[in-house]
Amino acid sequence: MNNKGFTLIELVVVIVILGILAVTAAPKFMNLNADAKTSTLYGIQAAMQSAAALVYGKSIVKGNHKEAFSLSNTVNIGDSVNGGELPIAYGYPVGDAFHFERIVPLETGDTYKYTALGASNVTLIVYFDDDYDIGAKPTSIDDACIAVYLISEGPGKSPTFKVNDCV
Q: Is the whole-model pTM more than 0.85?
């Protein structure tokens, strides 16, 4: 008699070996940490978009939504601690870490940080602090694992929001 098949014990052994391989190999293929960071950055981007839209609405009411950035071009955001006035350019917040923290505060002790790119108030970046050495910050809007805010370039033009996925 010629049996062509596997015994129950052989099948159980193969299933156990495949289970062990799946448990040890699966985490290497699933980068859940990077996905979580990217999702958080998309949440921060949405908060920044909402805050910018609210500031723009206040600017329309005040009538200064067509003016370029200047120290006198502001809207009142009701922040009594910092004077209440928020500098704007064409109705939208400028890309300044201090002022954006006032309208979209990141949790105290959180590892996400704001930084302005360069010396101007044109580009603001949110980054995950643990991804960089102490004192280091992103240097380009093309760096991985950041959310980018580029201020409005003129009247009627919205600011640009972008998220670079974490790897």
A: no
